Amino acid sequence: MKSVSNIETEPIIDHSFSVKRLDKYIPYTQSFVRLSYHRILILEKGSGFLLVDNESFEISGSEFFLLAKGQIYQFVEDSEVTGFSISFGDCFWEKAPSSASNCKAVLFNNATANLHLKPSVAEAEEILLLCKNLLMEYETPPYINQMDVMAAYLKIIMIKLANIKLVEEEIFDSQDYIVYRKFIELLSNQYQSFHAVNNYADLLNITSRRLSEICKRCTHKNAKELINGQIIAEARRLLQFSSYSVKDIAYQLNFGTPEQFSHFFKKNTAISPAAYRSKYMNIGVGIT
Predict the structure, then answer these.
(1) Distance in Å from the first CA to the final CA of the chain
(2) pTM (2 decimals)?
(3) How do residues 57-75 score in pLDDT, each as one tens digit?
(4) Taking Cα atoms as reference points, which of 77, 68, 71 lies closest to residue 27?
(5) Protein fold of 7-166
């Protein structure tokens, strides 16, 4: 990506997994970073602002953030937090038992939103204890099956986080949710190529109507809204954090013409691509 802001690409992590204590050192306060891995920020307490894509979150106590790979974030300078940062790649997640797959889908496969959880005191204490144990394991000298142990800890943390998100969600283990999860996984990898509901329905061997019904039940949004949301999320990142022209972005996102892209973007955001770029180019500057 051709950068017009101070953006870093997340460096390669050994074994596609890391856990760090956030205290005196807070990464990425001087620059944005585009994530190459999923990241869980478990904030025990703090103050300041966290910028994620085009949104700003004020930090005001115990809260959790779940950032998917591809998202761009930065802690605003002078932010102060304590807690944990957990990063993991898909290849590390595969070490976790398959029974945890739904948790990953719940927490990281919502292509249209940044997940921000506000735990209860008891929930926060439980997650923080798990993170402390995970960090202790991570800092232990390497031994056979250590990766499997850390994957098991990550699975437990993800299940607990998913429970905070879901509460009493009845569809969690349903067949509909399994189809929805497969759709979201396809969407996250294919949105630049496929924009139509029937493209994904064909890959899932169901009808377009059935796919939209499933999405509506699982997220209160139909399949087309989710597809458009994924495309708009990436378009916003490219407009805000790269110097690609609107024409280049249109072709990257598989629109036939720049005019088609501009019409699509304005229809879904109520603002033109050029106006969006002008408005959000300096996001984070002057936050009070």
Answers:
(1) 30
(2) 0.77
(3) 999 889 999 998 888 899 9
(4) 77
(5) Jelly Rolls (2.60.120)
